[in-house]
Amino acid sequence: MLHAMPRSGQPQAFELVLAWVDAQILEGRLRVGDHLPAERELAATLDVSRAAVREAVRTLQAQGVVHSFVGAGPGGGTVLTSVPSRALSRLLRLHVALANFPLPDVIEVRIALERLSARLATVNALDEDLADARRALEVMRDPSIDRQAFNDADTEFHVALATAAGNRLASDLTAAIRESMRLPILDRFRHLRDWDEVVADLRSDHEAIFAAIVGRDADVAERLVEAHIRSAWQAITLADGGGAEHTRECADRP
Amino acid sequence: MLHAMPRSGQPQAFELVLAWVDAQILEGRLRVGDHLPAERELAATLDVSRAAVREAVRTLQAQGVVHSFVGAGPGGGTVLTSVPSRALSRLLRLHVALANFPLPDVIEVRIALERLSARLATVNALDEDLADARRALEVMRDPSIDRQAFNDADTEFHVALATAAGNRLASDLTAAIRESMRLPILDRFRHLRDWDEVVADLRSDHEAIFAAIVGRDADVAERLVEAHIRSAWQAITLADGGGAEHTRECADRP
DNA sequence: ACTCGCTAATGGTCTGACCATTTAGTGAGA
DNA sequence: TCTCACTAAATGGTCAGACCATTAGCGAGT
Question: Where in this chain does the entry annotate a coiled-coil region (chains A, B) (predicted)?
């Protein structure tokens, strides 16, 4: 049910390797921090070529399950990791770019997740957990900040709240969603006419959300987060000069 | 910021290919349904080996972005797809198995997502959109149903609601989360003592949720969904005979 | 006891070959 | 002219074997 089957019923060579690793993980023989057998050894064990093993490793790497290091001894080899956020980010980003996930859908999910995070942060977060969020607020207070830097600090604020909430899945998804929307948001930011007005609203939204969380008012925090995300999205979609509508997410990386 | 850098500053060969594909997608030159250049051709274009291209393709495949077909002509080649749900499922399943995402965290996110889906389904879903959910309800009404079949119908019910809600990201995430919890849930099901009582509760929960949705009462639907998920989780975690606690997700696939 | 250098093991990469599958064209036969 | 079988080409799938850069560990020499 899980893996795509090729034309015939035979699993592909790299799927054999994936199935082997799956089984090891499921049966608890492989845990985070453990080393996979060396590529040549695993290839010999499973009677496939080393190329097949490497393709499987790439698959696992794309899922954030392993990370490879060159060199001999304990420092080298392919190790089970626990960094799913990068993998989630890349996956979401690609599918948003392909329009498999329409942005309005993403926004709704983002609201649901950040409402959860706001509530959890209100209940669980200690003061030092909120240090990152506080720092992001400081950065956004700078009147001379440019649009990209503001957006990055904005992202950091929301991700910091999600992290402070202590729910790993929620925070990783939140980070992934923000990352997936980075280019579309920057594109709309660029076409904003009343930037100063928008950024003032965003600033006060953030301050109010933060105050509600440190004030331990979960209901208000939840409500403010939802209102903030909705109004911000509306501001950069409806109020733009119309230039963003037909602008395909154009690459601006150096 | 996105891709892991190897030891030195040089990007790895397969990352060159990924970057190229990324750029094509971002600039709109590659859309869903389009063919990637043939592996040999792409290798020549980017001046890397075919093995490197294949590793990149495996990465993209793991992200649900492409699917490969053997053979010449339009029927063959590697094609951009839009099936992120399998990729999401596998990613979540692995990380749940590795305990990178603790199950209680997953449950909280699931509640947030399904509350959203319930609300959206109440507002958006036409009657025919709910046919799958209705069919799953029928299946679960069978008194002689075994635990695995019940769980599969249960999953189908929740996923059908999410699909009827019309939010692709929410439904894909819901499906992925259910899939990632399948083995842990089945394991706990197996150790349940008062199965008949639990299943009766689940049945009535589902019927009530469905009634609230067709009755267009979003608030009630949301509330019922959250209560249902919480009570079901509590029933299979707290009320089990203690056997599930130390049972590592043991494989039961054929 | 310390240092230097060698060796082995690792992943990273490339080359070149062969296979199975599929399409498209081509030619022989009706 | 049409039809069918066959061939050729293009595709991904797989493998074997080589070489490289990096790293850890060991051992000889000081």
Answer: none
B247 touches chain A (CB under 8 A): no
- Interface list for B 183-212 with A (CB within 8 A): 183
Q: Report pTM.
A: 0.90
- Does residue A68 lie within 7 Å of nucleic acid chain C, judged by its CB? yes
Distance, in Å, from the CA atom of B91 to the CA atom of A26, rounded to the nearest integer, reads 14
Q: What Cα–Cα distance (Å) separates residue B67 from each residue in A34, A76, B75, B170?
A: 31, 32, 12, 23
- Could you check: is the Cβ of residue A29 within 7 Å of any atom of nucleic acid strand C? no
> What are B77's strand-pairing partners?
B69
Find and give the residue nearest to C15, measured CA to C1': B49
Question: How far is CA A157 from its chain centroid?
Answer: 14
pLDDT tens digit at each of 254 positions of chain A: 333 444 456 899 999 999 999 999 999 999 999 999 999 999 999 999 999 999 999 999 999 999 999 999 899 999 999 899 999 999 999 999 999 999 999 999 999 999 999 999 999 999 999 999 999 999 999 999 999 999 999 999 999 999 999 999 999 999 999 999 999 999 999 888 888 999 999 999 999 999 999 999 999 999 999 999 999 999 998 754 444 443 444 333 33
